[in-house]
Structure formats: structure tokens, C-alpha cells
Amino acid sequence: MTQTYGLIAGLLMALALFVYTFWPENSFASQRQKTRLDYLQERKDQLYENLRDLNFEYRAGKYPEEDYATQRALLENEAAQLMSEIDYLQQA
To answer: Structure pTM?
Structure first.
């Protein structure tokens, strides 16, 4: 008799774990759409992180001077364009 109860308990536990694992969530429906400003803010954060990494790697000796200057100028130009667009969208 105890073996039957153990089997039933095991099957119920397996069913509960299966339902818990594969039950579809509706949380994706409650997410809001990203605006252009949200995207630009995320990109700005990523650019600043890239600049910090570039400076760190240059100081560690992984970048030659000319590559560092070129890469830094590209990142700074992109950041400046991004900031001007962010300012424009925030004023609108």
C-alpha cells in the first residue's frame, strides 16, 4: 500500500514540476515598447562603457597610440551625435 502512495506522490510531484517549468507566462504582454529615447540612452551607456574599456586597454599596453587615437575619435564622434539626438528628443 505504501508503494502505491509513493508512486502517486511521485507522479503528482513530476506533474507539478512539469507544469511549473513549462507553463507559459504572460509577462511579455505587460512590457512596454521601447521608445527611440530609451534606445539612445542604452546606446549612450554602451558607448561610455566602450570608451572606459578602450582607455583601460590602452593603459595596459594592448593598443598602439595611433589605433587608440583613431578608435577613441570614432567613439567620441558617435557619442556626440547620440547626445545631440537625445537633447533634441528631450526638448521635443
So the answer is: 0.64
